[in-house]
Design goal:
Elements (H helix, E strand, L loop, with lengths): L1 H11 L12 E2 L11 E2 H11 L4 H13 L5 H17 L5 H20 L3 H13 L10 H4 L2
Helix pairs in contact: 2-3, 4-5
Length: about 150
């Protein structure tokens, strides 16, 4: 509850009123065009009934829904360096430049996630291309098959 109150204060610039953080609600708080809040528990139970779920199963799923933190943090972290580079450098001046940046950033991030040295892979790829051999794969060994 303390973290929720802290986030609330940061977003709305005031202390939460009593009961304001007690239930999970959907909708927008504040502003003239705010949508009315909907009690998620009631909406979830109604959705479960609509799909022939037992009340107990609906409650179990609601607990998972409420307390599981589904985020896209991994994806956000993966593109962060590329986004910062684009902002600092002002982007590229051509479609070809944009495609090159996308590809090189993809190679860099893939190698980082696999614990492989980027320069080593780039050297192998350039050498293979120069000698007319196939470019080395970026697929992990487990995904390459026999």
């Amino acid at each position: 509850m303390d973290r929720a109150a802290q986030l609330f204060r940061g977003r709305y610039g005031r202390e939460p009123r009593p009961g304001e953080l007690d239930s999970l609600t959907l909708g927008t708080r504040g502003g003239k065009s705010a949508a009315p809040s909907t009690d998620v528990s009631a909406a979830w139970r109604a959705l479960g009934a609509e799909h022939n779920q037992t009340a107990q199963r609906s409650e179990e799923l609601l607990v998972l829904f409420r307390y599981r933190h589904n985020t896209n943090n991994a994806a956000e972290r993966a593109v962060r360096r590329a986004v910062l580079m684009r902002k600092l450098q002002g982007g590229t001046q051509s479609e070809e430049g944009s495609r090159w940046i996308e590809r090189i950033q993809s190679v860099r991030e893939t190698c980082r996630l696999q614990g492989r040295p980027v320069l080593g892979w780039l050297t192998q790829a350039a050498t293979a291309a120069h000698h007319g051999r196939p470019i080395p794969t970026l697929l992990p060994a487990a995904a390459q098959g026999p």
